[in-house]
Amino acid sequence: MIKGTPKRRKDVILLFLIFIIAFTLITINIRGNKNSTIIESIIITVISPFQSIVTKSINKISSIWNGYIYLVNVQEENVRQKKEIHELREENNRYIEQNLRYKRLKDMLAFQEKGYGKMIMSEVVGFDPTGWAHIVMIDKGTKDGVKKGMPVVTHEGLVGRIIQSTPKFSKILLITDVKSAVDAIVQRTRSSGVVVGNNKNICEMKYLAITADVEIMDKVISSGLGGIFPKGLIIGIVSAVQKGKYGLFQKVEVTPAGNLSQLEEVFVITGD
Amino acid sequence: MPILIFIFFTILIFTIQTTVLRYISIAGVTPDIILIFTVYAGLRQGKEKGITTGFILGLIQDSLSAGIMGVNALSKGLLGFIVGDIREKIMSENTITQCFFIFIATIFDGLIVLLISETIFPEDLGGRISLRPLLSRALYNSIIGLLIFGVSKWVKEVRSGYRSI
Prior knowledge:
The structure holds two protein chains of two kinds. Chain A is α+β, with helices and mostly antiparallel strands.
């Protein structure tokens, strides 16, 4: 029996309820029971279409601003030719956007020819809402053949892997997140280690033997071990090497090959 | 009707948080408007609505992120409750004081997430939250909170002005 005024009792019950529900969810999550993902799927299904609309609108506005409005302001004095310039710029901007997209697709096509299997192009529509994780949301889901565990890349290199898929949207855990671990090798010397994230924009290569030959600017690629990431995907470039006097391993910083904070389009390797 | 308004605002703030706010992030620190709205709910509506709002917003935050499900729900729920409880004891309409609440609330929220994450997954170590980014985050949240609370106060004044006419 809880003592005190009815108001106080109500407060205690409310707090107790919150603790019970939260700890039940945490326990389900730790035990790896995926029942909780039903809530997650509903929330993603509701929120992601709005993310998609806003992100696409922002991209459109920024593209118009960069290619059109800004330049128009610069040459405002040329009123006589304004109309013609507007039309030409608009047309030009369209070509620039098409050209950039063509270049990205061309790079991707070349990448696809390396034999990683079928890839699905998707657009990034949202980012992590907590600030404690490095994830992004994409506009392709199970309906498009995207499944949990599939690797995600850009033509520059490895981005991460799918950790959750709803029919139309999926969540990607970036290689910079603390929960990410990719078995990797240094391309030049074949020394092996594990690339882990640290929630910054760089990764760390762990378990690299103190005797291993590794230098700044060495390329780090996926080893293919672990069964998630195919062998040979570029993870990043070694940006710092620290060898201590003691210990079995050296501390190696790896800068991801792709700019993970400004992702627009990514490719999911379905491997079919 | 209030439920529909709540749903509308929830969708709106999550859409803003996960799309637009990354454009105003400074050195990787992005303001957390979900936390600001939890504090707002606690201050304006008291501890019962504060705890419910915080819990729901935290749960959605957990669902859209990659952390442990329930951690943000717990921290934001507690936050809504505590802020609501403090409001009932020390009522303050001062925007600066309210922003101080946001500063403390950000640190509290970060420490709870850190405590639970580190207890459950100690191998993740300190990368997730360290004190310096937490302080920067608290400061940034307070500045954004100052703007949001300022605008809210102004809207309230304008509305009460219309009513008196």
